[in-house]
Amino acid sequence: MKIVVCVKRTASGELNPFDACAYEAALQIPDSEVILLSMGPDKTKEMLLNLTRLGAKEAYLLCDGAFAGADTLATAYTLSLAVKKLSPDLVICGRQTIDGDTAQTGPSLSVAADLSLITNVMHIKETAGRLVCETRDMGVQTAEYPALITVERINHLRLPSIRSKKGAVIRWTAKDIDADLSRCGLKGSPTRVLASFQNEEGKRKCKFIEMTELSEAIKQGLEKERQHLNPIQQSERKLRKVWIVGEAPRSFAESISEDITAIDKEDFMKAGDTNRDFAVRFTEHIREWQPEVILWGSDVWSKAVAPQVAALLQTGLCADCTALETDGEKLYMYRPAFSGNIVAKIACMTKPQMATVRTWEAGSAEVICALGKGAKNVVHDVQALVQRKNEVAAKGKSARWDIAATRLAVDAEMLSYDRQVGITGKSVNSAVYIAVGISGAVHHIAGMKQSSIVIAINPDKKAPIFDYADYGIVETAEDFMNFLNKEMYA
Prior knowledge:
With about 500 residues, the protein is an alpha/beta fold. The chain has 12 helices and 24 strands. The chain has 3 domains: about 1-185, HUPs (Rossmann fold); about 205-225 and about 360-485, TPP-binding domain (Rossmann fold, 3-Layer(aba) Sandwich), CATH 3.40.50.1220; about 230-355, HUPs (Rossmann fold). Strands 7-6-5-8-4-1-2-3-9 form a 9-stranded mixed β-sheet, with helices on both faces. Strands 11-24-23-22-20-21 form a 6-stranded parallel β-sheet.
C-alpha cells in the first residue's frame, strides 16, 4: 500500500503533534510504502530529512513563494496537486495543527483530490480490501480506496534507530505540480485576517477562599443560571439570508441577522449516505438559494462536513469563531489563534461566507472536576469521588459530576483523550468547573470559560488559572483531595 502522510512544521520549528501521530499510524500499517508531504519554507527540509530516518521512503516539500499566506482552501488545493501526482492509496493527516487549530485541511483536501474520507480516527482496524476505522465520536466508519483519514493524538512517534539513515527530500515548486497561481497562497485564499489582538476573553475577578468555603462556592454555582455563548456585540445593521445548520449556532446568527433559516441535516441525508453525499447534495441547495452566510456548530460532524462544502463551493470557512459582527454587508468573524494567545478578526472575500462557531458539548454535567498535570497523584481519588457523587445523583439528591482533563494531562496518560477540554478538545458549559492542578494555559481556558462558576486549586498563587477563576484555593491537589475525602464523602 502506498501512503502519503501530510506533515507540517509548526511556528516553533517542530513537527505538528497531530501529524506525528499520523506518521506513526502509517508506519504501523504492514507492507506499506510511506511518503511524507509538506508545504513550507526551505527550513522545513531539515525536519523532513530527520523524519525520513524513521522509515519514510522519501519526502516531498512544496516550496514556492506563490504558496505563502495560504488559508486552508488554498493549502488543500496545492497539496491536492502533489497528492494526485504521487497517486497514493491512502493519505493520512493529523486532525489539525496546534497553531491553526481549524481541522479543515484534511476534509478540504479529500474533496480537492477526490478521496473518500474518515475523520477523527482513533484506531485503524482494517486496511486489506477496504479501510475500517474506529472514530472518536462517530463509531466505526468504512471507506473505499483511495481514501484520506485524519487522526487524533492516538500514539507516540517512534524514535530513530542508531543505524538509521536519512532519505531523500524532493523540492517541488508551483511549476512542478502545474499549479494555477490564482488558487495558491494569499492570492487564492478567500479568508483574510484583518486584525489581531491579545486574547483577554474569559478573565474573571478571583476571590481566594479557604477549603472550608468550597461547598458554599459549589452551591452558588449550582443555583446560578448557566452562561451562554455571547457574541462581542449585537450588530445594529443586519445581514439577509443567514442559514444555520442545526440549532447550535442560533445565538450567533441572531447577533447578525433577523432573516435566519435553520437547516435540518436529515433533510439532505438518505439511508447509507456518507458525509460527502450530504456535502454534495447540500452544496446544490446552496447554489440554488444563495444564502449570504452559513453557520455551523463545532461538533465533530460539522467540522468534518463544513470544509467539504467549502471546498465544493470554493468559498472561505472560518473555524471555531467565538463572536461575529457585521456592517450589514460583510461578515466579520473572531476566532482564537496560536493556541488561543491571540484573537484574529477575519473576513471572507467570497460568498457564501461560512463559519463554524464554538458551541459547548451538549449534556455537560452540572459539576466538572478537571485535572491538570499537577493532579497526577490524585486521579484515582477524583474518579472515586465522582463515582460516589453520581451514585447519590442517581437517587435525585444532588448534581451530576464528571471528570475532564487538560491536554498535558491527556498527553501524560492520566485520563483518556475523550476527557480533554480546550481548543484541541471539547468545550463544556458546566454550572461549576473545579480546576485541580491546572496552570491555566489559554488553549484550555477556551474550552472551560463558559462554565458559570470556576473554582481553581493550585499551590502557586500566581498561576494564570486564577485569572480565569471566580474562586481560588491555594493548596496542592493532594491536600485538596484529602479535605474532600474527609468532608464531602459523608
